[in-house]
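**User:**
If convenient, please work through this fold.
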Amino acid sequence: MARYAALSSSPLPLSPEDLYEFRFLTDAQISPDGARVAYAVKTANPKRDGYVGAIWLVPADGTNAPAQITAGIAHDSSPRWSPDGSELAFTSDRGDVPKGRKRPPRNVFLLALAGGEARQLTHFGDDCSDLVWSPDARSLAFVVRDPKDSTDEDDSVRVYDRARYRSDEGGLADGRHKHVWVVGADGSAPRKLTDGDWDDGQPEFSPDGREVAFVSNRTDQRDLNTVADIHVVKLSGETRRITDGEGSYGNPSWSPTGPTARSVRQLATSISGPSPKMADRVRTSSKSGTAPSARR
């Protein structure tokens, strides 16, 4: 009898209306001193035709309740602590909806935790992503697609002569690519750091702040393979590849003193059968560009 009594007191099944009450917590980031955690909360908007997001803070030890620190009337996300913990950079789609788009682009904002409104650092027509601070807190690196040419027309005829002409994320390709940019925390104009007929992503500053590691496929057959190499670019613009041009690398992370850049590579341990097994290995690549050695 006790078994059936417990079943009768169970919650009602979910209904479509319940979905609007869901709160999605993402991208938790621990402060440099380890005392606080910043994270984003996404909820359905009042019209229930999209989402809004806000940045929240909570003590790492749980002694106080979480506090919302952005208004949440737009989609605020991707909080990133400044090295001294006094500011939070984040992306937001605050602003007007450009012609031909369904929502505003996500640009980079900076919020001083001592008080005041968030400052908008970039004004791009496409979404900014992959935010990362420089060690001296003077600038941030991020990724954004090349600006559209003012003469381009969305309804014009397009001719494709490459194997990769569309993606699930971006739809039909328009010839523009994602590259690494740097913007000053003081509001100085953004500066393009990488360029070319390929996409770049996952930037990471070196400990001395003079270089940025990033991921890119710059092989001649990039439309036909899944190569992803780690590259390093100096702030002056000189770029070099430091992995072997054959594997798929990602998430570069510098050693504290800067002599190496570390990345994660997925290697197939079996190529026979319909489902090859995959193994993650941490590999260390010499900054001078020699081939990396595998580390388990």
